[in-house]
Amino acid sequence: MKILLARFTSGSEFLDHFDPAFQWGGLLVPTRTTVAADEALVIEVAFPGLPNHVLLRARAVDRDDERACLIVKFLQSEERKKEFLQACAAGTPLKVWQRKHRRFPVRMRVAFGIADGGSSPVQAYSEDLSAGRMFLRTPMTLSVRTPVTLSVVPADGSPPIEVSGHVAWVRQHPPTAGFGVTWSQRASDPMRRLRRLMRDLKSRGKLDEMVGTTAGA
C-alpha cells in the first residue's frame, strides 16, 4: 500500500479538509499523486498540536482538481483515530488514545499459539505493528494476559520471525475481532528484525499488504 503524507499548517486546516460525507469520515489530501479508485492507501496525517503523526487506512475515491486534492475515505477500523484527530484539531485531545509507540498498518501472515500449551498453531494476520505491540485479526480470541508465541512471516520472503509476548487486550466484534500482543523481550534478535522491517517499510514509502484473506481478516 502507498503511504501519502497529509501535512496541514494547523488543526483548522485539517478540519477544513475533513470530509464528513463518508460513513467513517474522509479527507481531501493535498497531493499531485493519482491513484485508481478504491485503491488501498495509508494516510499519514500531521499538523501542529498533534502529538505524533497518525496513520490511517483509507480507500481512494476521486480527485478534487479545483483544490488539487485526492479524496479518500477512512475504513471503519480507523474510527477511533479519526475521532482523536478531530479532537486534537479542535484543541481538545483525547488522552485515552495517546500511545507510547507509533503503529504501522502492515498485514503479514502470523501463526500463534499459547506458550507451552502444546496446541497446533493458529493462522492469523497482523493488522498493525509497533515497537511495543502487534494486533492480530482472528476470530479466535484469547483471554487477557495469556502468554503466546508468534511466528511472523514477512512479506519480503525472508524467514519467519519467532517472538513471544502476552495478550494485552481483546476486540470481540466481527469482522474486526482479534487481540493485541505486547512483547516479552524487546531487546532480542527477533525484535531487532521486526524494528528493521518497520524502518524498511517506512523508508520505501509503502507498507506491505499480503495477498489473500482468512476468516475474520
Question: Which ranges are low-confidence, i.e. pLDDT below 50, for 5 or more consecutive residues?
Answer: 208-217
* Amino-to-carboxy terminus distance: 17 Å
Arithmetic mean of pLDDT:
82
Q: Count the strands?
A: 12
Helix content class: 10-25%
Strand content: 35-45%
> What is the third-level CATH name, the topology of the largest domain?
Thrombin, subunit H
- Work out the radius of gyration: 18 Å
Strand order of the largest sheet: 1-4-5-6-3-2
CATH class of the largest domain, named Mainly Beta
Number of domains: 2
CATH homologous superfamily (4th level) name of the largest domain: predicted glycosyltransferase like domains
Derived from helix and strand composition plus strand pairing, the structural class reads alpha+beta
Descriptive overview:
There is one protein chain. The chain has about 220 residues and is of the alpha+beta class. It has two domains: about 1-95, Thrombin, subunit H (Beta Barrel); about 110-205, Thrombin, subunit H (Beta Barrel). It has three helices and twelve strands. The chain has helices at about 10-15, 80-90, 190-205, and strands at about 1-5, 20, 25-30, 40-45, 55-65, 70-75, 110-115, 120-130, 135, 145-155, 160-170, 180-185. The two termini are about 15 Å apart.
